[in-house]
Please model this.
Amino acid sequence: LRDFVSQNLARLDQELADPVARAELRLTLATALRDLGVPAEAAPALEQAERELAAAFGPASARVAEALHHR
Model:
């Protein structure tokens, strides 16, 4: 499962054009990695998802706050 999640994280930028959908899926996959016990591998993806969501909704948005909760 870990390999599946990691591989799909790597494909997001090439295969998903919508920035919000990409950020949401990145957040979901990164949270899965964290929950699988590899927080160091999840951290960069969580941070990137937060940046993408902040760009889409603003840094003080509820969606960014929710993403920060996943850390």
About this structure: Residues 23 and 48 are 8 Å apart (CA to CA).
